[in-house]
Amino acid sequence: MIRKFDIFLNFDPRFTAISHPMFNIMNTMSIDIGVHLKAVRQMYGLSQRELAKRAGVTNGLISLIEQNRVSPSVSSLKKVLDGIPMTLADFFTLDLAGRPQVFFAREELADIGTGSVELRLVGSRLAKRSMSILHERYPANADTGEEVLTHPGEEGGVVVAGRIELTVGGESRILSRGDAYYFKSSMPHRFRNPGREECEIVSASSPPTF
């Protein structure tokens, strides 16, 4: 069974170290073409049939490649990747094992809150985040403190349970389930739960404050 790229280029003599710049990249690699193609296809949310249609090939060919029952030429693989679209260089240098985390269990959300207020941060270990997403819980009578908060950026959120009193720039309003807010974070603001039930909010801010 043909599996590795070590013998891949033998099927198309037009692509040599002199005539094709991809040769030096690919000739030094040994990856499972079928497994790699399947992983890339699924990463882009494409079925074999959909990828085949977009690439102008039969879905049987995609299936055969992914099962390592055929070893495509460079030109054939390029045609398949054009349906994603993805370049040959990106395909062979994509580190699927090093992909950033996408899904997070509740226990993976770092609690950065203080006192009785629970603020669970999504993706706390992700490098170079462009925003902060928080799952916030305020017990009855809990608040963010006597001092108002100010920081650069913008923030917004939706109340998913209970009630919250939000003060922004001296104006206060009590928000209930389904209500939302959005404001510039440089405006002095404060959160307080005036009710007898826990308040739950899902919020986001950019740039990330936490």
Descriptive labels:
210 residues; alpha+beta; 434 Repressor (Amino-terminal Domain); Jelly Rolls; six-stranded antiparallel β-sheet; three-stranded antiparallel β-sheet; 9 strands; 24% strand; elongated; disordered N terminus
Write a compact overview of the structure shown.
The protein has 210 residues and is an alpha+beta fold. Helix content is 22%, strand content 24%.
Written account of the structure:
The chain has a 6-stranded antiparallel beta sheet, with no helix packed on it. The protein has helices at 22-26, 33-43, 48-55, 59-66, 74-82, 88-93; strands at residues 110-111, 118-121, 132-138, 154-161, 163-168, 171-176, 180-184, 189-192, 199-206. The protein has 2 domains: 5-98, Orthogonal Bundle (434 Repressor (Amino-terminal Domain)), CATH 1.10.260.40; 106-206, Jelly Rolls, CATH 2.60.120. The longest helix has 11 residues, at 33-43. Helix 3 (48-55) packs across helix 4 and helix 3 crosses helix 5. It contains 6 helices and 9 strands, in the order H-H-H-H-H-H-E-E-E-E-E-E-E-E-E. 22% of the residues lie in helices and 24% in strands. Residues 1-29 have low confidence and may be disordered. It is elongated, with a radius of gyration of 26 Å. With 210 residues, it is α+β, with helices and mostly antiparallel strands.
CATH hierarchy: architecture of the largest domain: Sandwich
Main sheet summary: 6 strands, antiparallel
Could you say which structural class the secondary elements and strand pairing correspond to?
A: alpha+beta
Helical proportion, percent range = 10-25%
Q: Hey, roughly how much beta strand do the residues contain?
A: 15-25%
Shape: elongated
> What is the helix tally?
6
CATH superfamily of the largest domain: Jelly Rolls
Please state how the strands of the largest beta sheet are arranged side by side: 1-2-3-9-4-7
CATH level 1 class label of the largest domain: Mainly Beta
Low-confidence stretches: 1-29
| Total number of domains | 2
Nearest-integer average pLDDT: 84
Order of helices and strands: HHHHHHEEEEEEEEE
Strand segment tally: 9
The name CATH uses for the topology of the largest domain is: Jelly Rolls
